[in-house]
Every structure is written in C-alpha cells, then in structure tokens.
Automatic annotation (TrEMBL), chain A:
Membrane topology: Multi-pass membrane protein
Transmembrane feature ranges: 6-27, 39-58, 83-106, 118-136, 142-161, 173-196, 208-228, 249-267, 279-302, 309-332, 352-372, 392-415, 435-462, 483-502, 535-558, 659-677
A GO cellular-component term linked to this record: plasma membrane
Compartmental location: Cell membrane; Membrane
Protein name stated in the entry: Hydrogenase 4 subunit B
Main location: membrane
Protein keywords: Cell membrane, Membrane, Oxidoreductase, Transmembrane, Transmembrane helix
UniProt-recorded Gene Ontology molecular function terms: oxidoreductase activity
Domain NADH:quinone oxidoreductase/Mrp antiporter transmembrane: from-to ranges: 138-426
Native species: Candidatus Muproteobacteria bacterium RIFCSPHIGHO2_02_FULL_65_16
PANTHER family named in the record: FORMATE HYDROGENLYASE SUBUNIT 3-RELATED, HYDROGENASE-4 COMPONENT F
UniProtKB/TrEMBL annotation, chain B:
Name listed for the protein in its UniProt record: Formate hydrogenlyase
Principal subcellular localization: membrane
Lineage start: Bacteria, Pseudomonadati, Pseudomonadota, Candidatus Muproteobacteria
InterPro entries according to UniProt: ComplexI_Subunit1, NADH_UbQ_OxRdtase_su1/FPO
Keyword ATP-binding: no
Organism: Candidatus Muproteobacteria bacterium RIFCSPHIGHO2_02_FULL_65_16
CC annotations in GO: plasma membrane
One GO molecular-function entry: lyase activity
Keyword entries, A-Z: Lyase, Membrane, Transmembrane, Transmembrane helix
PANTHER family: FORMATE HYDROGENLYASE SUBUNIT 4, FORMATE HYDROGENLYASE SUBUNIT 4-RELATED
Annotated TM spans: 6-25, 63-86, 92-111, 132-151, 171-189, 232-249, 255-278, 290-311
Its membrane topology: Multi-pass membrane protein
C-alpha cells in the first residue's frame, strides 16, 4: 500500500507510541530517558495522529488495510475514515499538549512523590495512547476489543500508580471492575451484530440485517457499555474516584480523551454499524444525557478537591455530548436527517471542545498541585500573583467550560440549543415538549457550571493565600506553561473561528448519513447559521471583536484622563485588619446552592458549639463538619454489591473443596453438553 | 452599510439613554414614596462625578479586578447592541441571537462575581456566591421564556421575532402571556430589584450585587453602574419590543424613526412605573425565598411552552 497517506501517518503515530513505550523500559536506569526520549516520541505520536486525522477528515478519504497480525482466519482489519480521523485529531491534540507538559511535571513529581518506577509510568502511558489510537483505527470487533482492553488495563496501572495511598488502590479496583463490566456489555453487543452479520469485521456487521428488537438489544448493550466508560449517570461512580488518582497529565488524557473514545464507540456502533436508528434510543440517550449534565454539575459544585471537581465536570460535559447525540437520533428516526446532522455536529464539536478545555484545566490543576502541593481548594488562594501566566490560561479554561461567549464551549452549547429549538418539526407532542425541558436543564447546568468555576477561580487564584505553602508557590516551567498556553489558544481559536472547524467536521455526517449537512457556514466564515440565517445566526469573530473593541476603547478613553492610582486598604467594617480566614471558602461559596438543591445529595452536617461558662451567648469554639455524598452510592452500588456478595455466597455452596466432586461436575457437564449437541 | 450605521447609532442612543431611564425610575419611586425626587438627569451627574474621581484600589487587587469593569461594560453594550430599540430590522441582531444575549449577560455576571472574590473580603465572596445562585436559577427561566417565543416565531433572531409579532397582528397567544410574566419576574431578579435584591441598600446582610462591587471606586464604579443601568434597560426593551412591538420603525424614514423613539420612550416610561408599583407593594425577600420566586417564574414559562405545544400547534 501507499505509505504516504493518512493511514501511513496513522501507522507512524502507532509506531511512535510503541517506541515511546519500549524506550521507557530503560527509564529506571536512566532517569532523563522518560522525561525527554519517551515524551518526545509521544509528542511525535500526537502530531502524527493530528496529521493523519486532519488529512483524512479534510479529504474525506477512507483507507482500509489488513495487518499481518491476529488469528489465522481473522487478520487485523484497520480503517481510517473521517469519523476515526476526527477522533484522531482530538486524541492527537491532547497527547501532543500533554507531552509538552510532561517533562516539567514529571521532574517535580518524581521529586515529591517518591516515585516508584519511571519505567512503569512511561510504558503504561505509551500503551494507553497506543490503545486509544488503535481503538479508533479498528475495523473489526476483534481488534476493537483488544485495543479497548489495552486502553482500560494500561490506564488501570496509571490510576493505581500512586498505590501507596489506600484510596487510590480502591479507586483503581473500582475502575477496573467497571471497565470490565462495560467491556462485557460491548462484547455482547458485538456478539449480536456478529451473529447477524456472519463475521467479526465491521464490513459484515454493517451489512447485517437486524430485526428492530435485536437492533434495540444490541443498542442497549453498547449504550450501557460505552456509557459506563464515558461516565454517564448513573454508572459514573468510578470516574470521580479514578481520574483524580492518576498523575495530573494522565488525568488530562483520561478525562479529555479516553471518555471521547467511548463516545467514538457509541457513534461508530449506533450510526455506522447498527444503522436504522429508532426514536426510543434517542429518547434514552437524551434523558440519560440530561440527567448526567445536571447531576454532574451539581455533584461538582460540592467538591473542594480540584481534581475531583474537574472529574465530575466531565460527567456534565459527557451529558451535553449525549444530549446532542440523543437529539440527533430523535431527528434522524423521525425523518429529519438534516436536523439530525445538526445535533451530531453539535455533539462532535463539544467532544473536541471538551477535550481542549478539560485538558487545559487538568493541566492547570497539575500545575497548581506542582507549585504548592495542594489539591484542596480551601487551602489555596491568591495564586494569580504567584503564578500569573498559569492564572491567565486557567481563566480561559474556566470561561470555556462555563459556556461563555466568545469561547469554544459556548459555540457547541449554542449549537445544541439550536438543535433543541427545532423540536416543533417533530410530529409527537410528547417529544415536542420534552426537548425544550431538556434544553432548559442544559441552561441550568451551564449557569451552575459558571457558578462552579467562579468558585474554583475565585477561591484558588483570587483573594488571599489560605496557607503558607500556597503563599510561596512559584510559577511552573516553560514546557508546562507552553502546553497550557497552546490549549488556551486553541480554546479561543475554536470559539472565535468556529466556521472553519465546523466545515471540516461536516465530513463525518456526510460519511455516516450520506447527506450533505445544512449550510451552517453558507453566509461566509463570519456567520454561523445552523439552520438558516432567518432562524438563527451567530458571528463569533464579530462578537470577539466587539468585546475587545468596546472594552479597549473605553479603557483608552479613560486612560487619557488617568490620574495616578492610589492603593489603599480594603473595607474591613472598622473591625481591624482582614485576614485570609475571613474569605469565603469553596464550601461556603456553594452553600446557597447546596441548600436549594438539598435533596440531590446525602448531606451530613454537624455543628458543635462549645460555650464559655459565664457567657452563654458567646461561643468559645465552633466545630463544623460537612460530608456530602453522591447518592448513587447508597442507592445503586451498595445494593448491587450486597447482591453480588450474597449470590457469591450461595454459589459458593457447590464448592466442597474435594477433587472428586469437581471431577463429577465436569463429567456431568460434559454429558449434558454431548446431549445438547446431539 | 447604512443599516449598520443606523444600528451603531441606535446602540449609542441605547447606551446614552440608559441613565435617563434609571433617573426616571428613581423619580417615580420617590414620588410614590412621598420623598423629594432628584432631578431626572441626576444619574448623569453621578456618572460624571465618578468618572472624574481618582481611583483608590485595594492593595491586593489583581488585574482581574481592574479589567472587570471594562469587560462588563463591553459585554453589556454588546447585549444592548443586538436588541432592536427603534428600528425593527436591525442588522446587528444577526451577529448574536437571543441565546448569545443571555451569554453576554452571563459573561458580565461571571466577571463581576470574580471581581467580588478578588480582594479577599467576606462581603465580596458573599455577594458573588449569592449572585451566582440567583443567576443559575434565573438563566433557565429566561431561556424557557425565550424558547416559547422562538418556537412560536421559529427564530431566535430578535429582529425576526419582533417582525413575527408585528405581522401576527393583535392576537392573544396564551403562551406569550405566560412567557411575558415569566420574563418579567426574571428581569426583576436579574437586575437586582426588589424583592430579590435592593439596589438602594448597603445593608451588609441583604445586599447581593452591591456586595460584589463594594470595593470599586471612581471610573471603575462608574462603568459598573452604567452597565447595570444598561442591563435594566435591555430587559425592559426586550419585554416592550418583543411582546408589544407596535410603534417600532419598520422603514427607514424620519417620521417612522420619530414615532419609534416616542413609542419606545412611552413604553419604557410605563414599564418603569409598573416596576416601581411592584417594588412599592413588595417587601424584600429572604435569600432562600428567592428560589421559590424563580421556581414560580420557571413554572410560568414552562406553562407557556406547554400551552404553545398543546394549544397553538395542534399536535
């Protein structure tokens, strides 16, 4: 085959990732090997992946190939088409940024965390990236599952990397368990498709002729499996445990792109392999997506560990992506494919945007942890003065994830809103009234996300330092800043110039649904008109220019008559100097919301007041304890866990410990099977 | 090109007349409460005074604190720029539809809340925390009301929506009535009026918006105040022109424009009186009653949407 093609570049990406893993084997002996050799190779893999994906996306080319690996009767089939290409770009961008970030981060990390094995970290990271890229390339169920497991298992090792802390071990086990339950469901889904298609290749599955009932079963299985991996409510519980446990640059990869690989799987199987979408599936995806969006952000608001908070926001954003997909499926099954394309494009764009800003925020969280050794917001404060550049990049990430114009998060949320507003095109009155409610929930979630990130930024970066180590924090090194700067710049570019990128994405729906998408960019690069100019339009470049121009103009106008600025003390009500403990903490900030949405969480609040003996109205000391728990634990997981244990105990009865009994079991099973076969 | 120029002129008119509306509201309120009223142009005098004053910054203030007034002012002006005030066909309405308008106001709120936390006083944090709670509850109500409207008119472009109502003639749409009520309640909450917040108070325990901007001096404060006046006017113009657009200029003649200016002036004056009537009969609510207030507003907007789906399209 021709190696100067997108697929050739994709092979290069895989080879670089593999080489990075091989090189890392020596990292225990030569420390700098990990920091320079393998991260550079990983960066090369990322760039090659962006190149391959972008090439295939822009040219809308499909390249299939068979590798000389696999079973004798089933070679490994790989294929790079626009859908895989799009996700290649997503993965590649973040891998490249992370490899820029890693050297500086790892140096400090090794210093601080009493690192165990550099080789293990390097090999697992490389295999993780390799696994993700291979999932995207897979063109048969066999390769897909192998790559999927490679991705899951290598990331298990990364989550368990700091295994000296017991919570990390627990998180890693939970992650492995959930990943495998999900993997099982996906495998069963493939099983249904393979049985009807008569083969394991995607080609055969595409041709399979399924009845609606079997198609629905297959869809339910893969939706459950991929939803579990993507962190959809209510099967999200592993996510906020596992993502914060890994080193920060790995958290960025897990939250930023691994979840997207699950989204890829869902899109590939639903749109491409199963085809023939039913509206009930769309409703299921929409409802669970809406629930994930709202619950994700509400749980996030209650966190004060920065990385856990960000992990919960991934649940929210996966919800937004699922909402777009659900809307798209509803429209497609109702014979409105053009609107379906709009939803799909909104979901894909949010996938890309979320990878960028969540990557940026996790890298920022890593930088903060690196600079002051803190993950707890309630001990931070005033970092904007100690880490001025990180503060700027982090602010961009906060604005983007809060869905504020003119950044990228807003564009994809706006597209999702526009899709939802097309609900009157549907026949069913129930759907017509359900969809706007979902849109209102999205609005609520976006506003709550803004509240959450005001909290994060206000508590961590603004105000006064709440601890001594935070007060002595230092700016991180050039590589880390460059990585964050790159992602911040991309967030801005994807927000201000959405038309270019949306044009490129259009190749995906063209391939999946065979329709040319509506002319979202018909009005030129300035105008984004998803349905038609009359219905809605948004001009991000003009908006950006407007904010900058008006703000700048007013600034200059007032600067002319500027007198020297005097610095004074802030208002302290006349009670004497303010101190850092008088500031609102993260917990205090979210208190009104905690009270308004109280039924969502399990809240245990305990206030203990010690009084002075002779002054009954003046407390001597107050102890306040607050414990907010995710309700899915007591309601869903613990009952299931108990059930499994009880079942195991029952089944355990057949284990006598005697070899004779076991031989008898085997014999009778064999007899039974022979009887069944004949 | 002429249309764009007129659009810019209209925005200027919007920005310049916002303090006048604030002065009118203050005057009506004083009359209503039997107090001596300040002159109509008192807000201009206040702004001019603040703009001249020297800036005294808190010692820990970071650049976020100093940039916020400009960002807030810029975002609010952009919001004003996309609302049809005098001319129905407004080219800038295509730059940003009503969802983006909500986004602009959210952007302004985000930065104001950040500025509140920047100095590190307890008041600032308190104001920010409360403001973000109120904002989070108000935004879905606002969008729900807007969705009702845009599903009826099948557009989110404000000029098109105004045109749709104009062409529809004087018909009573039940959904619009509900949406109008919902939007009015949101407007009260979002612009910090009684019963949700009180713009006239500096009482520590009840203030929300004022708590965030407590540390702002001089021209920074002038910009924030001016932006708040523009924001109030944005909501009032939205209510006036979308639900009762009659009088708005549909063609580019001097006569139509004069009529448009008069019509919107009269509508705003009337809405101002309504607002003050409401503020005079209501008492300020406790903070934790606000969710119920906004919940009721959401219910109204939801009813509006359901009425539209059930009654008006015949599904």
């Amino acid at each position: 085959m021709n190696y100067l093609s997108p697929l050739g570049l994709a092979y290069l990406a895989l080879a670089c990732a593999l080489a990075s893993g091989v090189l890392s084997l020596g990292a225990d002996r030569y420390a700098s090997l990990l920091r320079y050799g393998s991260t550079i190779l990983l960066g090369a893999a990322g760039l090659a992946a962006v190149g391959a994906g972008g090439w295939s996306l822009l040219h809308e080319s499909r390249h299939a190939d068979q590798l000389l690996l696999g079973l004798p009767w089933l070679k490994w089939h790989v294929r790079l088409d626009p859908l895989s290409g799009f996700f290649f770009v997503v993965v590649g961008l973040l891998v490249a940024a992370v490899s820029l970030y890693a050297p500086g981060y790892l140096r400090e990390f090794a210093h601080r965390q009493n690192i165990h094995s550099r080789a293990a970290l390097g090999v697992a990271t490389a295999l993780f990236v390799l696994g993700m890229l291979l999932v995207l390339l897979a063109d048969d169920a066999f390769v897909f599952m192998i790559a999927w497991e490679l991705m899951s298992v290598s990331s298990y090792f990364l989550v368990a990397y700091q295994h000296q802390h017991a919570p990390n071990r627990r998180a890693a086990f939970l992650y492995l368990l959930m990943a495998h339950v999900g993997g099982l469901a996906i495998m069963l889904g493939f099983g249904v498709l393979a049985a009807f298609g008569g083969g394991f290749t995607f080609e055969a599955m595409r041709a399979a002729n399924l009845s609606t009932a079997w198609a629905s079963i297959a869809f339910a299985l893969v939706f459950f499996g991929f939803g579990m991996k993507a962190g959809m409510v209510p099967v999200h519980a592993w996510l906020p445990e596992a993502h914060p446990a890994a080193p920060s640059h790995i958290s960025a990869l897990m939250s930023g792109v691994m979840l997207k690989v699950a989204i890829y799987g869902l899109v590939r199987l639903t749109y491409d392999l199963i085809g023939d979408i039913q509206w009930q599936w769309g409703v299921a995806v929409l409802v669970l997506g809406t629930a994930s969006t709202l619950l994700g952000v509400l749980y996030a608001l209650m966190q004060h560990d920065l990385k856990r908070l960000l992990a919960y926001h991934s649940v929210e954003n996966i919800g937004i992506i699922l909402m777009g997909l659900g809307l798209s499926m509803i429209f497609i099954s109702n014979g409105k494919p053009v609107l379906g394309v709009l939803g799909l494009v909104a979901a894909l764009y949010h996938t890309l945007n979320h990878a960028l800003f969540k990557g940026l925020l996790f890298l920022g969280a890593g930088a903060v942890a690196h600079a002051c050794g803190e993950n707890d917001l309630n001990n931070m404060g005033g970092l904007i003065r100690r880490m001025p550049q990180t503060a700027v990049f982090f602010l961009v990430g906060c604005l983007a994830i809060s869905g504020l114009p003119p950044l990228n998060g807003f564009v994809s949320e706006w597209l999702t809103f526009q899709t939802a507003l097309q609900a009157p095109a549907l026949q069913s009155g129930v759907l017509r009234s359900l969809i706007p409610i979902a849109a209102a929930v999205l609005a609520l979630s976006a506003a709550l996300a803004a509240a959450c990130f005001v909290k994060v930024y206000g508590v961590a970066f603004l105000g006064q330092p709440r601890g001594r180590r935070v007060g002595h924090a230092h700016e991180v090194d050039v590589g880390m800043r460059a990585a964050m700067g790159l992602l911040a710049l991309l967030c801005l570019a994807f927000g201000v110039l959405p038309t270019f990128f949306l044009d490129a994405i259009n190749g995906v729906p063209r391939m999946l649904l065979g329709i040319t998408p509506p002319s979202a960019t018909a009005g030129g690069w300035l105008w984004l008109t998803p349905v038609s100019p009359r219905v809605a339009s948004y001009s991000a470049p003009l908006v950006f220019a407007g904010v900058v121009l008006i703000g700048g103009l007013v600034f200059l106008l007032l600067r002319v008559r500027r007198k020297n600025i005097r610095r004074g003390y802030p208002w302290d009500c006349g009670f004497g100097a303010l101190n850092a403990r008088m500031q609102y903490t993260a917990t205090a900030f979210s208190m009104p919301i905690r009270r308004v949405f109280a039924p969502v969480w399990d809240i245990e609040e305990e206030i203990e007041e010690t009084k002075h003996a002779n002054q009954p109205f003046r407390p001597a000391a107050i102890r306040h304890q607050l414990h907010v728990q995710d309700k899915s634990w007591p309601r869903l997981y613990e009952p299931i866990g108990r059930l499994v244990l009880a079942a195991a105990r029952r089944i355990g009865l057949i284990q006598t410990g005697s070899i004779h009994t076991y031989l008898a079991y085997s014999f009778f099973t064999l007899l039974l099977l022979l009887w069944v076969v004949t | 090109m002429t249309a764009w120029l007129l659009g810019v002129l209209q925005t200027l008119l919007f920005v310049v007349s916002a303090p006048l509306l604030a002065g009118w509201i203050k005057r009506v309120k004083c009359h209503m409460q039997n107090r001596a009223a300040p002159a109509l142009w008192q807000p201009y005098r206040d702004l001019a005074k603040l703009l001249r004053k020297r800036v005294v910054l808190a010692e820990h203030a970071s650049w976020v604190f100093r940039a916020t007034p400009f960002i807030v002012f810029g975002a609010t002006i952009l919001a004003a720029a996309v609302v049809p005030l005098v001319l129905a066909q407004h080219p800038a309405a295509a730059v940003a539809d009503v969802i983006v308008l909500v986004g602009f106001l959210a952007l302004a709120r985000f930065f104001t809340a950040l500025a509140g936390m920047d100095i590190g006083t307890a008041f600032g944090g308190m104001g920010s925390s409360r403001e973000m709670m109120i904002g989070a509850l108000a935004e879905p109500v606002m969008l729900m009301a807007v969705f009702t409207l845009s599903m009826t008119a099948s557009t989110t472009n404000l000029s098109e929506a105004v045109g749709y109502t104009l062409n529809g003639g004087l018909v009573l749409r039940p959904s619009f009535v509900f949406a109008l009520l919902g939007l009015m309640m949101v407007a009260v909450a979002e612009t910090g009026r009684i019963p949700v917040d009180n713009p006239a108070t500096h009482l520590e325990l009840t203030m929300v918006h004022e708590a965030m901007i407590l540390e702002y001096p001089g021209r920074h404060l002038a910009l924030i105040e001016w932006a708040a006046q523009i924001k109030l006017m944005v909501y009032m113009v939205l209510i006036a022109n979308i639900f009762l657009p009659w009088g708005i200029a549909t063609e580019l003649t001097a006569q139509a424009a004069a009529l448009g200016v008069t019509a919107i002036g009269a509508k705003l004056a009337l809405l101002g009186v309504l607002l003050i009537l409401w503020e005079t009969v209501m008492a300020k609510m406790r903070l934790f009653r606000v969710p119920q207030f906004l919940g009721f507003a959401f219910l109204l907007s939801l009813l509006g949407m359901l009425t539209h789906v059930v009654l008006e399209t015949g599904g």
